[in-house]
Amino acid sequence: MSSLRKKALVRLLLCALALIATIVFCVLLLTGTFDGAPSSGAADPASTSEPASSDGAGSVSEGEPAASDATVSSDPAAESAAEPTPTPEPTPVTFDGLSEQPATVYAEGEQPTFTVTPDSTMNMRAGPGTDFDRVGQIPAGTTVTALGANADETWIVVEYEGTYGWLTKEYLNAA
């Protein structure tokens, strides 16, 4: 076999190894099993297979990057991609002045609005029931926004004039 064919064959093998290493790396990234550590299975085959094909490596490596160079250059990107970004913990919502906090807190933009029935003023309570202390009153016909609700959604938490309180949905109309 001529030296030109040997060089071409060695170059072809190095390209094939680089392609295989790239495919393995991509599969590991897509499946989420790649942890970014250089000791994972993707980097070892490329670096250990290079010396095995180093019969003509002196002439091949003149100006040609080795297969392990391609793997090393992708490690910093893989490490930054593999590091999880911390997710902030949601801040628990508390409504000052209430004896009992709501079981459900409505997200901003998803808060339903209600109108107090036009025939009577409603008492705001410190908890979801008439046995809780009265913390304020809401005039008839007033529109309120629900901030939260109890487990069976028969009572809602509202804020009126800077005070939080519970209202029964029995005497409210959907706005």
Describe the structure.
α1 runs antiparallel to α2 (about 45-50) and α2 runs antiparallel to α4 (about 65-80). β6 and β7 (about 155-160) form a beta hairpin. This protein has a four-stranded antiparallel beta sheet, with no helix packed on it. Strands 5-2-9 form a three-stranded antiparallel beta sheet, with no helix packed on it. It starts with a helix and ends with a strand. It contains four helices and nine strands. It folds into two domains: about 5-80, no CATH class; about 105-175, SH3 Domains (SH3 type barrels, Roll). It is α+β, with helices and mostly antiparallel strands and about 180 residues long. This is SH3 domain-containing protein. InterPro entries: SH3-like_bac-type.
